[in-house]
């Protein structure tokens, strides 16, 4: 005669301890890597007492920077990368006209170092106007 085996009921609980461990590891990884993702050129923005612009966060942005030594940098996105190479003004005109032609709704931002010359800023604005940018936004730093 066979021994009588008791049937065990299936357990309907989920063991969530491994999921919590994975979540905590991911939280630590993101906390450590988030400050490292901030990149950009060192540009000493001029201060202005103006109101912040209403910027659509979902729209694509094009940022053109002028450094203190009057070199131009172009970046598709809100931040610049440190390993970028300077771009000539006429090359900026060609690139911007292609980008604006492909995406007319793109927001164009110009950030210029406070020590750069006025003539480099005006030449950039002239090139942007010829490339089809109707109203570029100027990036400044609030007054302290």
Task: Please give a structural write-up.
The chain contains 3 helices and 6 strands, in the order H-E-E-E-H-E-H-E-E. The chain has 144 residues and is α/β, with parallel strands linked by helices. The chain has a domain at 47-142: 2-Layer Sandwich (Nucleotidyltransferase, domain 5), CATH 3.30.420.270. A 4-stranded mixed beta sheet has the order 3-2-4-5, with no helix packed on it. The protein has a two-stranded parallel ribbon with strand order 1-6. Strand 2 (61-66) and strand 3 form a beta hairpin. Helix 2 (89-102) packs parallel to helix 3. The longest helix is centred in the first third of the chain and has 17 residues, at 17-33. The protein is elongated. The model has no long low-confidence stretch (mean pLDDT 80).
Write a concise keyword list for the protein shown above.
4-stranded mixed β-sheet, single chain, 144 residues, alpha/beta, 3 helices, Nucleotidyltransferase, domain 5, two-stranded parallel sheet
The main pleated sheet reads as: 4 strands, mixed
Q: How confident overall, as mean pLDDT?
A: 80
- Please tally the helical runs, counting DSSP H or I stretches of 4 or more residues: 3
Question: Outline, from the CA principal axes?
Answer: elongated
Which spans have pLDDT < 50 for at least 5 consecutive residues?
none
Question: What is the CATH architecture descriptor of the domain at 47-142?
Answer: 2-Layer Sandwich
- The secondary structure category is alpha/beta
Q: Strand order within the widest sheet?
A: 3-2-4-5
Proportion in helices: 25-40%
Distance between the termini: 91 Å
CATH class of the domain at 47-142: Alpha Beta
Strand content: 15-25%
């Amino acid at each position: 005669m066979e021994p009588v085996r008791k049937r065990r009921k299936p357990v309907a609980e989920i063991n969530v301890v491994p999921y919590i461990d994975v979540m905590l590891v991911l939280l630590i990884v993101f906390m450590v890597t988030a400050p490292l993702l901030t990149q950009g050129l060192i540009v000493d923005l001029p201060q202005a007492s103006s109101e912040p612009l209403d910027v659509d966060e979902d729209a694509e942005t094009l940022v053109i920077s002028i450094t203190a030594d009057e070199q131009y940098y172009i970046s598709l996105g809100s931040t610049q990368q440190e390993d970028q190479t300077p771009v000539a003004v006429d090359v900026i005109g060609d690139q911007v006209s292609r980008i604006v032609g492909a995406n007319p709704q793109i927001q164009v931002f110009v950030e210029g170092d406070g020590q750069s010359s006025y003539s480099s800023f005006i030449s950039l604005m002239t090139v942007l106007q010829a490339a089809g940018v109707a109203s570029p936004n100027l990036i400044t730093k609030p007054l302290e």
